[in-house]
Amino acid sequence: MSDTVRTWRHIQQRYNLIGSKCNTCGEVFFPSRVVCPNCRRKGDLEPFQFSGKGKIYTYSVIRSAPDDFKKSAPYAVAVIELEEGAKLTTQLVDCDVDSLEIGDDVEMVFRRVREDGEDGVISYGYKFKVIK
Ligand SMILES: [Zn+2]
Questions:
Q1: For ligand 1, a single-atom ion, which residues have Cβ within 5 Å?
Q2: Which of 23, 82, 94, 121 could bridge across to 54 with cysteines, CB 3.0–4.6 Å?
Q3: Structural domain harbouring 58
Q4: Domain named ChsH2 C-terminal OB-fold: which ranges (predicted)?
Q5: How far is 132 from 118, CA to CA, in rounded Å?
Q6: Residue 15 belongs to a domain
Q7: pTM here?
């Protein structure tokens, strides 16, 4: 695989929440995997597009943030259980960190994740927000 293809694939996964699904056992994975941990060599993995909807499985509120994130503190980092079953860790945005509850419905949004000064690198990635 060329670097260009690899990078493109990485971007695709990052922007579209693409993981993989095993056609043998039916389990879905995010990030995507090359080998199904359940089926090993009998596994049959193919790319799988997640809906971007899920629920808060667990979360913690960061009040003492590292320097790069000081401006956004307090913020919540949550493990999201996607509708389709896979779990991922992400930052919750647009929410009152004191009113979060396990089981709250969330959906994926795109946000600027980092900005290093005026001419710095800006990148975007998925985060999740609570739907009430
Ligand atoms: Zn499998």
A1: 22, 24-25, 36, 38-39, 43
A2: 82
A3: 52-130
A4: 50-111
A5: 35
A6: no
A7: 0.78
